[in-house]
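The data layer described in this paper is built around a simple, fixed record for each protein. Such a record has a labelled line for the sequence and another for the backbone structure tokens. For reference, a complete record is included directly beneath this paragraph.
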Amino acid sequence: MNSTENVAIVVTSIAKPNEVLSKISQESLQRGWEFIVIGDLASPSDFDLKGTNFYSVERQLETNFNFAKACPTRHYARKNIGYLLAIKNQASIIIETDDDNMPREEFWLPRTRQQEVVTANNMGWINAYDYFTEANIWPRGFPLDDILTNKTDWDSLETTRVDCPIQQGLADGNPDVDAIYRLVLPLPQDFRKDRRLALGQNSWCPFNSQNTAWWPDAYPLLYLPAYCSFRMTDIWRSFIAQKIAWANGWSILFHEPTVWQDRNEHNLMKDFSQEIDGYLKNREICETLEALELEPGKDKLMDNMRKCYSSLVNISVMPAEELNLLDAWLSDLESLI
């Protein structure tokens, strides 16, 4: 990533311009990056922030994207419209974050798709956070019955050159953990800044939509499902993205924290309720995806997505309506790519 590339930052928010949004807009404006904010019904009608391309629900509908018309309102999945807009504007990298993640200086540094890093292959469930801290902490979406499993020693993992078109940055302060962690274990927590870890074939770890960079080959995998809870949409997306990434020889990079999160107010018991499906089904989802035979190639990404989402509908993780929404996303993509 260099100054000549067309970088887009995508956020969904119902907040009025706050310190985080102001910081992102200011820094984006200086760099010539596009900053897209996707609103929803609760967004302020007078949202105005220099350097920000804000899309109210009304303006989203004016895009004529099939997805904009089909997606439920009051749902985080409307962020998909921001991805489509960035793709339409030929973004060479899409960076997604949230309106409570303050970017550090490192957030704005060049990003490289090809990495020579410590790599985990064929390790099953692997808690990536384990390698960035001594604390007992795990990412939202990680199976509860694997939290105490002994990790593989860092020094025993090999360093390899890998292709990482999806890169998850960590967050200090109030990192992305589940409601059970927040209810019973200490925060804030910070992560070490001297390591990077790539997850390759058959190594599962959920990643989120809070500080994640995507390169064009992987853009179809950005799709956030809408017919599931807010707390699971990016997690279940990450499992599908990992399965399809493996078919293409791609790895998922976890890297040092580049944001500091001052988390928006949440009802933790409501979060817990919305995460129950994940606690009970995340392992089954990945076992179902593992059993699928997927074809390699960028031209097969959309077919592979249909196959993955259909498999989750078949095990009643999502309703059939999700497939109609996925088709709307894919038809919009086909018109843009």
Summary: The chain is about 30% helix and 20% strand. The chain has a mean pLDDT of 95. The first strand starts at residue 7 and ends at 12. Residues 268-290 form the longest helix (23 residues).
